[in-house]
Description:
five-stranded antiparallel beta sheet
Amino acid sequence: MKSDVSILIAALGLCFLRASAAEPAPAEALYRGPDPFRQIAREQWLAESPHAFAVRDKNPQAPVHVLVISKNPVPTMLQASDDLLGEMLGLAKRVAEKEGIARDGFRVVINTHPKGGQSVYHLHMHVLGGRQMRWPSG
Amino acid sequence: MKSDVSILIAALGLCFLRASAAEPAPAEALYRGPDPFRQIAREQWLAESPHAFAVRDKNPQAPVHVLVISKNPVPTMLQASDDLLGEMLGLAKRVAEKEGIARDGFRVVINTHPKGGQSVYHLHMHVLGGRQMRWPSG
């Protein structure tokens, strides 16, 4: 009987250890991925604000497709202050005006974590225009 | 000769008048459309911040589809201050946490003017999640 209890305790312990090992905070693991935005040369910037800059997307999904990227590598909008997010949308508006898509129309998209479609864990916003954007938005 | 000049001036004047009449700022006309967001009862609010509130979209495009709407009827993000935009994204984050889609992922979409897909000219942001969001975003 005593050995049965020992085995049970040992088994429960193993289950607990396995569960801990199998569930590292998934967000943390995602955040350790490569960050190609850190390699962008300043010469490629289209515009900037104190804490963000704008560059063309390398895989454009519309005639105008610009990324507004935080200068500090915050992983997602969840870690960003309201001030930074407001400043980045302000820059997105300036980019839309500069690219001539403000009047006809444009879409701003912010993807967070895998189901949102985020691929680079360095805060960025997509500014898309120059064609009719469809609905739903992906 | 004098009458030729008069005719020229009159013709130029007419052209100018025609151009003015034919090109009212299209944005201004759009902004005069109906605003169903003003009729939303406070009981339907899921959450609020000082200058914005959140409600479910009546035509959901995902299991979770919430709108973050400005309390003051600003027509588009182009007329909004960075402070208001930051506050609204802050509320969008809170909504994502509350609806349980922050960890798996979600998408925030802001449509501006017709080519962006804006249908109601009262500033709002879409918060979408609960399924895999596709790319491109419409």
